[in-house]
Write a structure and sequence with these properties.
Length: 159
């Protein structure tokens, strides 16, 4: 009986530590998809691209398009604590019309053809997410809220 309980505990522990996080994925873009991103989001020479994605309002439990200017200040402070050398960092909005005041096609973009929404977020009921892509088209996503440690971890997986 003791042996069975110990085996059960070890099995559960092993399985829980080895399961993939539901809100984090590892995938690779096709050449066409990679070219699409480079052309539409001004990704030129940097080794990595960070896409901070804002979900449609209908996927979020609050109005995630309210106070976008204040949100920009928060994001600036968030990323100021990180080393982003050779990394392009952009913000993509699923609902471009709601974000039109800050979309500048330099660092803030609308989600052209719902590319990022369909790529990683279409089935999620979250407000935010992040996608980090390397030059080979390999990418990692984090769905939902994220912190500096999450970004650093995803970057390290792709370098």
């Amino acid at each position: 009986m003791k042996r069975t309980i110990i085996l059960l505990i070890l099995s559960v522990g092993f399985l829980s530590f080895n399961e993939n996080h539901k809100n984090s994925t590892n995938k690779k873009l096709t050449e066409v998809e990679l070219s699409f991103i480079k052309e539409n989001y001004n990704w030129k020479a940097e080794g990595l691209l960070i896409v901070n994605f804002r979900q449609p309002k209908s996927s979020c439990h609050y109005d995630n398009y309210k106070n976008l200017k204040n949100s920009l200040k928060w994001w600036s402070e968030f990323y100021s604590k990180m080393d982003l050398e050779n990394i392009r960092n952009i913000y993509v909005y699923s609902e471009g019309l709601k974000a039109k005041k800050i979309i500048d096609s330099e660092n803030h973009f609308t989600d052209t053809n719902d590319f990022f929404l369909n790529l990683a977020f279409s089935k999620d009921k979250t407000c935010y997410g992040v996608i980090i892509v390397n030059e080979k088209g390999e990418f990692r996503t984090k769905v939902g809220e994220y912190i500096n440690k999450d970004i650093e971890e995803l970057i390290s997986q792709l370098e």
